[in-house]
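Dear colleagues,

As part of the handover before I leave the project, I'm documenting each prediction I ran so the next person doesn't have to rerun anything. This entry is a single chain, and its sequence is reproduced below.
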Amino acid sequence: MIDLVGGVDVAVAESFTDPQFPVAGRENDECGGDPKLLCRYEALHFEKGREHMDGELALKYVRSRHAQGEEGSDFARSRRQQEVLLALKEKFMSPFSWISPFRVGSLLRAVDEATDTDMKIGEALTIGKMLVKTPGGAIKKISIEDLFFSPPTSWYGRYVLIPKEDFPALHTFLRSQLGSSR
């Protein structure tokens, strides 16, 4: 979809380098005997700020998981996925810069292939209408990262997150952020 709209301008929140992004199709490459199997990976680097991305680069940006520090976390990947979705939404908001009859049909096919839903067409159009009417600044992103900590793997035998306080405190936070009284 990103390629069909001419790419997206993503607001990269933090600079990072991923020295071990897997190269598609080289998962089983013996790399000419290299014991480190370096040919299976490529290094990626993204600078903080606006970056124009085609579909392939956007996919690498959201899938990267071997950066040092916080950018290598699942929370960072989730944030990056949201950044790309917001950039795609912004692109849809100015359709005259990319739309053509060919692209509309191709885009509808791409959306159909990428999604599976039991919504009726009227329901989907209603959601689409709401998205178009919602300005980018009105979209609220909620992060619960600071409410958890990751104990040593020896505690549970694997990587887990547990609340810093307790689950009722987490629920209270989420209700306050979502504006729900239940």
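Residues 3-137 form one domain. The chain has two domains: 3-137, 142-182.

All the best with the project,
I.
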